[in-house]
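RETRY 2/3 - previous attempt timed out on the joint model. Re-submitting the same 473-residue input unchanged.
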Amino acid sequence: MTKYLVNPLPYDNSNPNLILDYAKKLKGKTFEDILSADPNLTEDEKDRIRTKYNNPKYKWSFWNLIEESYFFYKKNNDSEADFPEAWVELKVSPYFDNEWKIRGKERISLTMINFNADYNKTFEESHIYDKCSLLLLIFYLYKKEQKKMDYIMNYIDLFQFPEEDFEILKSDYNIIIEKIKRGEAHLLSEWDTKYLWACRKWQKTKKWTTTITTQPFSNEPAKTRAFCLKVPYVTSILNRYIINNKHTYWNIIKDLDILKKTTLEEYVLSKLKLHYWEDADELLLKYWINPKRKDRYAALANIWIRDIFNINKEDIIDEFEKANIEVKTVRLDSKWKPCEAMSFPAFKYLEIIDQKFEESDLYDLFANQKFLLIVYKYDDTKNLKFEKAMFWNIPILDIEWPIKDFREETVKRIKSGKYNNLPKESENMIMHVRPHAWKSSDTFTTPDWKSATKKCFWFNKSYIQEQIEKGGN
DNA sequence: GCATGATCATGC
DNA sequence: GCATGATCATGC
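RETRY 2/3 succeeded.
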């Protein structure tokens, strides 16, 4: 049973909108403001809580503090909703704001997975469905250099999963359940799914023994996991529904019955397939794309996909944004070899040397991004034709070993001042480092406080070829 | 012929 | 004014 800590409560907990009205008063406040105003705690207790949250070694969710010191309740049964009368679940989550765009910082954890009990529940019978149908989201601004208790809460709103997201959440859910049924709970990864995933839980805050559990169809121990909304999905909720930015969003699949019969990927590919062998340069003319721009075929792919699905060229494709599916283009020569390597955003020398692989931008890119590769090929008459489209994720084994090693070698050389001699295409099977700047004088600061041309990671041509031949997923 | 270094047009 | 998604230009 939920225990209430003050009487009467300063808000009406039976109605979602009245809870929201009270929650909105948190806007502009810090966690310190909330803690200091708590009438139930002694100064000693407050100090203990401050120390716990400010400790940079641990990531404690602020959910507990907001629950007890602002909403004045304490739960002792996790399976019940946070506000049981109103059927509302409270989530407190950080976001980044770097002037250009606002992004969610972390996944939002919905409910723990009990491998031994949940595998025979349908999505509709699951806790995600009954407990998380209405979320009260409180987003606070994360700043690296700031004490955690001084973070400010800025965006507060109720959120309900849109109907069109349900089928995709459900298909993600089923992918996870199927994996448990195959005895592969220990192999779950964020690579598997689009909006939802089974993330590891309590890795740093609890004892080792509680982070490992059993699974029903294998003797292999598995890590404790929870159903979570992936970071790109959180970013999309923030931008689309809470901040209400000026963009217009369109779904590729408007008819929900289609998603019950097929997946997003199958549907998209079945439509694009009808356009294989169209001529890329003719399409440039058709869409008025400047043939001198270097990203002309990428620009073409973006306009042309929107045209096929009846979406305006400046509008956002909802499913692609929520699952962070990025369109990338590859040109193959007449012998099926890629004409160019594939680039990614430039890295900062001073940042990359401080990041562990698992926390690096490169890892984040591959863990949270999926690719829709648009492949063009030069035919025997040197005309560039649309060859095929494929959805692609980097194979997890490539990340775990060769790419990790490659990145560590890069970091080692930057640290020792060899930032102008980084791994080349001829040195590594998968990736290399090359300049990515608008002039060679466009530089970043190096660890020895000099500067060097901005560079980025590139996929080798041979690796792209290999992955295209494998056919994607 | 290809790997490597240099740079372009665009959009926010 | 710079990040982006690439292609172009060169030198071995």
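The first strand of chain A starts at residue 3 and ends at 4. Closing ticket.
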